[in-house]
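Fold this sequence, please.
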Amino acid sequence: MSILSSQETMKAVGLFRYLPIEHPESLINVEIEKPVPAGKDLLIKVKAISVNPVDTKVRAPKEKREDAPRVLGWDVAGIVEQIGPDCTLFKPGDEVYYAGSITRPGGNSQYHLVDERIAGRKPKSLNFADAAALPLTAITAWEGLYERLGVSRNKEDNVGKTVLIIGAAGGVGSIATQLAKLAGLTVIGTASRPESVQWAQQMGADHIINHYDAFLPQLTALGLTEVDYIFCLNSTAEHWQNMADAIAPQGKICSIVETSQTLNMNLLKNKSVTFAWEFMFTRAMFQTSDMIEQHNLLNEVAELVDNGLLSATVTQRLTPIDAANLRKAHAMLEEGHTIGKIILEHFA
């Protein structure tokens, strides 16, 4: 389908209707206007993208219809083609990676606009495909651990401290496990299948428990009576009682998964437990004064990768970037058994 214009156009994958992923029009190939950068925006030539649960949640069936194609996709690696007049951090030709903003068109297109304050220098040691798998999960894991949970990055501060990562084999869990180990924490990850257990251990988890069973008895069997931190990357409501039981007095819990159910916050009261949400789009969505912290942390992540301290988490690659492959990627995510990240590269 083409959207005709007198301006230069580009290929993209978008939607007009919010449909089940099995429907051939749930994601379609479109042609749309190539954007022009203004202000602090960079125009990026997209080389590779990856998919995340947020993509499937935004695309999920609903009655709403779009007049113009809505483009999803919040993980991009590419090359700066043009810069806006207020840009100071990058120049044309620079290789970047980023997750973008949920309130703007996504990156499932040949060219994409992103505010330079939320883009980072692509790790030199990674190709575009591997780099595209990192931004959203790295930002989420970094902000969740270091900012929301307040974990110190100084190993000496974390001697004897523990973190429970619920969903350790997923995209965010894969990065969170590595960052937690770099900070000196003992990591207990949750996983339920042999392949996800193996992956979580490969990422650095010290212990594995099953998230379908009660947490505390499993922790007790490991010689642990409680954990200092919990990072919930799976159903918040489903694990709420288990988290309340396992968290240490004055401990901290952070979740990234919204819930339609009412959470009984009283379960945390007697232990004076802190609970925080992490949503990596907050800074871009509200144009916070510290937006540039995402630029800074992505540059730090790139350094960790280039120094061999952080590993890429790609497990599946699809080529080219088109509607058929994106529908396939969304379907895999919706099955709920994805390990690591799925990436797509090269426009047809």
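Confidence is low (pLDDT under 50) at residues 1-6. The first helix runs from residue 53 to 59.
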